[in-house]
Amino acid sequence: MMIVIPDVLTAAEVAAITDRLATADWVDGNVTSGTQSALAKRNRQLPEDAPVAMELGTRILDALGRAPRFVAAALPLKVYPPLFNAYAGGEAFGTHVDSAIRIRRGTDFRIRSDLSATLFLADPDSYDGGELVVDQGLTDHRIKLPAGHMLLYPASTLHRVEPVTRGTRFAAFFWIQSMVRDPAARQMLFDLDQTIQALGATLGAGDDRVVRLTGLYHNLLRRWADA
Ligand code: NI
User: What is the CA(51)–ligand 1 centre distance, in A?
Assistant: First the structure.
């Protein structure tokens, strides 16, 4: 599943975050990399335990909790606290796959990465390059979203970030462990949810058929979810 979650953050929230990022102390992005990724990665990150990263990450987690499309698509069990990166001056991240298990250093927080998320924080007109390219077999998807929009994509995919040749690309990135491990089951639940939402808008949420379909959704979730 590749899905765009628009307007996770408002323009004002993006501006407040990027103001802080502009003056933050960045370090080499390889602080969070595995050995294979480190070979491909040239960018900068905020240290995971930097107070500014933790504060801004919490704001993003709060925003995600208010984003019904994110909750319906990801069915999140655990969300890795968001990290922040910056690319400029030709920096890029070559083709790689994200680690299956992420452990937050110095804590007992661990997560299986089912989904990867990139929340774009810079206006696309303010930088050149920096597309997130996700390999989906026969086609590559090249993604560059407005600031405040987020891409959710399977953590199992090969992907890369193209060189940034002008300006700075700021983003938040993190991983989600879903309550529903099987991507096909998760996709069907999302499709059913979206259909129920559309029918509810037309027929009314109290319509008998909408109520029955909602019951079916929850019974499938009960069957498939680990909570
Ligand atoms: Ni990655």
Answer: 23
